[in-house]
Amino acid sequence: MKQSEIKNLSAAELQEKLSQTKKTYSDLKMAHAISPIDNPLQIRGVRRTVARLNTELSKREQQ
After folding, report:
1. Helix runs in 1-63, H state only
2. Axis crossing angle, helix 11-34 with helix 41-62, rounded to the nearest 10
């Protein structure tokens, strides 16, 4: 998910996306721990998306 897409979401949508993305991240990590997944770079992409969502939420809280 790109930063421009994240900026267009409302606060409630951000919270929902964040929880979904965190679940996806934990599922990927678990699957990779059991047996190596085909594309381990996918884990990094999801982790960065979680960081982008958290950053946008905290930025909105400060305003």
Report:
1. 3-7, 11-34, 41-62
2. 150
Burial-class residue 25 by CB neighbours within 10 Å (0-12, 13-18, 19+): middle
CA angle 8–2–22, rounded 5-degree value: 95
Handedness of CA 52, 54, 57, 60 (dihedral sign): negative
- How does pLDDT run across 14-51, given as a tens digit for each residue? 999 999 999 999 999 999 999 999 999 999 999 999 99
